[in-house]
Amino acid sequence: MKIGNFDLETDGTYIIAELSANHNGDLQNALNTIKAAKDIGADAIKLQTYRADTMTLDCKKDDFIIDGGTLWDGKNLYELYKEAYTPWEWHKELFDYARELGIDIFSSPFDKSAVDFLETLNPSAYKIASFEITDYELIRYAASKARPIIISTGIATLEEIQDAVNICKKEGNEEIVLLKCTSSYPTPLEDANLKMISDLSERFGVISGFSDHTIGSLAPVVAVTLGAKVIEKHFILDKSIGGPDADFSMDKEEFKEMIKAVRDTAKLLGKIDYSMTEKKKSSRQFSRSLYVSRDIKKDEILTEKNIKSVRPGYGMHPKYLNDILGLKVTKDINFGSPLRWKDIITKDKIY
Q1: N or C: which end of the chain has fewer CB within 10 A?
Q2: Is 184 contained in some domain?
Q3: How confident is the model at residue 350 (pLDDT cuts 50, 70, 90)?
Q4: Which of 269, 296, 331 is the last residue of a domain?
Q5: Do 97 and 240 have their domain in common?
């Protein structure tokens, strides 16, 4: 499965820098953040495409006041989204700039109108945010566009995750990534439950990854060891910019360090491979093999006094030691010579 030109099966870990509200209402901040993401080695920059009126109602009733132990408690939903959104008139310039730099770019649509708008920009994928996983019509509509679809599972029940996967497949879209996500900002380490990453892949038969809201880079590194092929993390150019998501976002240096840690971890994990690589073959010179440990005359019998298993590895395999003891040699062999089958008479073994 590919997102843009990145093959999730062969190219390592796909790292997404989430812009979210971290432009803080300034187009130049957004452009600079895209440039920084490219410079530090992120594979993609991700936007969020909504307006306040596509997210919620402009209503002051208590239901619309945030009260859930979050960073935004006490704020009105409409006012928060009005502050945090990325203006739609910026999108084309942001997409064009990212492509000019050579970094992938796509977005999270929050309603069907956002999908229609993003289609005009030819995104490489769609991302369904955690709180939208219950919006089955949005998932269906995004999946119908035949682009890879990445779904965060933060608030979902097992049944809802299965429904989301089934909806995509019913639309003929099998290019699905499920991200383990804890919708808590920031996420305490004990709530991350990273073991679910491998279970998501095995249970639903899809690629799995991790949308991270913890502080630091430990969780993404562990996620990679558990099979995450996609890592998403909020990215801010500089925390002094401020904004709704600044407190749980990584700045440029932090994100750069995380990318290095993730890439190094992926290198360490490597792949399951028992074949004899050139490096392995070269290293076998330091393995043990059978050598002549004192001068042997023609027709002399091989014993543990004149043959030893020692380093280096240019002689016969040590597994043959018991097979050759008691056999005679065909010629004189000097001390320190590797033993060869051609030097041995392989009949008339003497016990």
Answers
A1: C
A2: yes
A3: low
A4: 269
A5: yes
Residue 347 confidence (pLDDT): 75
What domain range is 194 assigned to?
A: 7-50+85-269
- Amino acid making up residue 238: D
SS (H, E, C) the chain: CEECCEECCCCCCEEEEECCCCCCCCHHHHHHHHHHHHHHCCCEEEEEECCHHHHCCCCCCHHHECCCCCCCCCCEHHHHHHHHCCCHHHHHHHHHHHHHHCCEEEEEECCHHHHHHHHCCCCCCEEECHHHCCCHHHHHHHHCCCCCEEEECCCCCHHHHHHHHHHHHHCCCCCEEEEEECCCCCCCHHHCCCCHHHHHHHHHCCEEEEEECCCCCHHHHHHHHCCCCEEEEEECCCHHHCCCCHHHCECHHHHHHHHHHHHHHHHHHCCCCCCCCHHHHHHHHHCCEEEECCCECCCCECCCCCEEEECCCCCECHHHHHHHCCCEECCCECCCCECCHHHEECCCCCC
- Look up residue 28 and give its two tokens: 């130049």
Residue 70: inside a domain, yes or no? no
Q: What is the rounded CA–CA span in Å between residue 191 and residue 13?
A: 23
Same domain assignment for residues 42 and 179? yes
Give me the percent of the chain exceeding a pLDDT of 70: 97
* Cβ burial, residue 152 (10 Å; 0-12/13-18/19+): buried
- Give me the pLDDT at residue 244, please: 76
Residue 308 lies in a domain: yes
Q: What is the pTM of this model?
A: 0.86
Is 13 contained in some domain? Answer: yes
In CATH, what number is assigned to the domain containing residue 301? 3.90.1210.10
Total structural domains in the chain? 2
